[in-house]
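TICKET: design request
STATUS: open
ATTACHED STRUCTURE:
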């Protein structure tokens, strides 16, 4: 981990297109601004963790009953593709 010391309005550049600015320093918190391209996702850690949890939950198959009615050819094809 790289640890840097910055004063208010001083900047850090990540790569060629992400800029981090120290906006304010308070008693118990630091405010930072992040300028990044729209295709770069920027989240607070707790939001990122929640997104990951929801993605794992959504990926989990809950009920396979509807698949029981698929024709056997499709089921066999799906099994082959999953290997």
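STATUS: resolved
RESOLUTION: sequence designed for all positions
ATTACHED SEQUENCE:
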């Amino acid at each position: 981990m790289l640890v840097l010391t910055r004063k208010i309005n001083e900047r850090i550049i990540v790569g060629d297109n992400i800029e981090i600015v120290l906006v304010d320093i308070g008693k118990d918190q630091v405010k930072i601004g992040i300028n990044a391209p729209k295709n770069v996702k920027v989240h607070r850690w707790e939001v990122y963790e929640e997104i990951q949890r929801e993605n794992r939950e959504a990926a989990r198959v809950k009920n396979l009953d509807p698949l029981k009615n698929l024709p056997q050819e499709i089921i066999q094809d799906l099994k082959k593709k999953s290997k």
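CLOSING REMARK: The two ends are 39 Å apart (CA to CA). Strands lie at 11-14, 18-25, 30-35.
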